[in-house]
Write a structure and sequence with these properties.
Helix content is 0%, strand content 40%. By secondary structure, the chain is mainly β. The protein has a four-stranded antiparallel beta sheet, with no helix packed on it. A hairpin with a 3-residue loop joins strand 5 (54-55) and strand 6. The chain starts with a strand and ends in a 10-residue tail after the last strand.
Length: 109
């Protein structure tokens, strides 16, 4: 079931927003030349929050251990092979809506 994460006007291309939907921390990432995507808000490595990650418009880098993820797919490009779990996202009537049903964050040991 889709629930409001934030208003569309809070998103900016090349940036990300930290949101919580249904008590789930996530990031709404908007890579340059792509569409906004919703990914898990915890790094798969060591369960550290990605709320203070660095994002250059293409690559999201965890500030705790420098694992890096592609902003368009969530695939890890620096760290162990893994992918950030992606949540369905849609924008309607100026609201960013995310569905958390059936999505489980990925973690790596």
């Amino acid at each position: 079931m889709f629930a409001k994460a934030c208003d569309e006007n809070e998103l900016k291309e090349g940036k990300y927003e930290v949101v919580a939907v249904n008590r789930t921390l996530m990031l709404v990432v908007w890579p340059f030349d792509e569409q906004p995507r919703a990914f898990q808000g915890m790094c798969p490595h060591d369960h550290e929050p990605l709320a203070d990650a660095r994002f250059d418009g293409k690559i999201l880098t965890c500030s705790h251990h420098d694992w890096a993820f592609q902003g368009e797919t969530g695939a890890c490009i620096k760290g162990k092979p893994c992918t950030l779990a992606e949540y369905p996202l849609k924008i309607e009537n100026g609201e960013v809506l995310i569905d958390t049903d059936g999505v489980t964050p990925n973690f790596v040991n």
